[in-house]
From TrEMBL:
PANTHER family: PARKIN COREGULATED GENE PROTEIN, PARKIN COREGULATED GENE PROTEIN PARK2 COREGULATED. GO terms for molecular function: Hsp70 protein binding; Hsp90 protein binding. GO terms for cellular component: cytosol; neuron projection; vesicle. This is Parkin coregulated. It comes from Meleagris gallopavo. It holds the Pfam family ParcG. Residues 1-35 are annotated as: Disordered.
Length: 104
């Protein structure tokens, strides 16, 4: 009866393996990383970092355009004023809602 050992296939002698290079402790291997654009052949290479997309500017503060309301308000065409209160600013109408009494 033949008893097979745990390894399957021919046994490799230990002398055929190349010794691995060991770096001294504390020595950090410096790898130069190449920067490239996305979706290119270079992007799939080793030691390559893909550049991110450009900023879209969605959160950039932009000045507001003057509206027709602001133009009429500053000119004084609307009968309103801003009431500065401790609770906040409110719009106050300058028009009286009382109707004149008609005597008959």
């Amino acid at each position: 009866m033949v008893v097979e050992e745990a390894g399957c296939g021919p046994a490799k002698p230990a002398g055929n393996r190349r010794p691995q290079k060991q770096e001294p402790l504390g020595h950090v291997k410096k790898s130069k990383q190449q920067v490239s654009d996305g979706f290119t052949v270079k992007a799939m290479m080793k030691n390559t970092v893909v550049r991110g997309p450009p900023l879209a500017g969605a959160f950039k503060e932009r000045p507001t355009k003057p509206t027709a309301f602001r133009k009429f308000y500053e000119r004084g065409d609307f009968p309103i004023a801003v009431e500065h209160d401790t609770k906040g600013n409110r719009i106050a109408w300058k028009v009286s809602h009382s109707m004149p009494l008609i005597a008959t």
